[in-house]
Amino acid sequence: MIDEGYVKYRCNWIKAESVSFNEIKELNQWRDELYQLGLIGEYENGIGFGNISIRYYLPGQFIVSGTHTGSLPILNEQHYTRVTSFDIGRNCLTCEGPIQASSESLTHAVLYEADATVNAIIHVHHFKLWQKLMYKVPTSAQDVPYGTPEMAKEIIRLFEEENLNEKKIMVMAGHEEGIISFGSNLEVAGKIILGCYHDLV
Q1: What total number of domains does the chain contain?
Q2: Which residues pair with 82 in a beta bridge?
Q3: Exposed site from 14, 34, 53, 162, fewest CB < 10 Å?
């Protein structure tokens, strides 16, 4: 069953000016390619899926695609926001920008916090790829929903028990079709997910 697609954490959204085009240029290039492949998009019921982020130059911050942008074929500066702080234990997050952060932003936050070498994160949906990778790469427990403190704890477990920091890709068993890749930059994260995708097709 496809997840509901709504934000499950408490979001303190501060409306602010958009990030600059240069800050999201590479993000957009990768997002465009993932959208064209159908790894980011929208289901027939109108629920969008997939998101992408990069670590910001200020400590503890990152830029992420906004909520409800999966359906849009092209994004611009108005479709990204900057997460400025988060508290995983309290299930809350603050973002500043023209749009509210993606529903998966708390998951992005824990990955950035867990590994200082992570500078880019890609979250895609693809049913056949999800099925193929399940339990062949680090896989979260089926009863753990996305965007929650429980998922944050599960990611830490995968780092400790399943060498997630080496694999740099994980399957979210409790978030149908959900797959996350990450790396030191967007090219690393993108090549991991595209390599798996092209092996499938």
Answers
A1: 1
A2: 63, 96
A3: 14
Tokens of 170: 């994980």
| Domain-embedded: residue 69 | yes
Contact yes or no for 121/110 (Cβ under 8 A): no
- Count other Cβ atoms within 10 Å, centred on residue 156: 16
Q: Residue 2: what pLDDT?
A: 45
Which helix (H) or strand (E) element contains residue 96? Answer: strand 92-97
Average per-residue pLDDT in the chain?
A: 92
Closest CA to 95 of 118, 116, 66, 120: 66
| Full 3-state SS string of 109-164 | HHHHHHCCCCCEEEEEECHHHHHHHCCCCCEECCCCCCCCHHHHHHHHHHHHHCCH
What local confidence, expressed as pLDDT, does residue 82 receive?
A: 97
Q: Look at residue 2 and tell me if it is in a domain.
A: no
What CATH number corresponds to the domain at position 76? 3.40.225.10
3-state secondary structure 16-83: CCCCCHHHHHHHHHHHHHHHHCCCCEECCCCCEECEEEEECCCCCCEEEEECCCCCCCCCCHHHEEEE
In a domain, 57, yes or no: yes
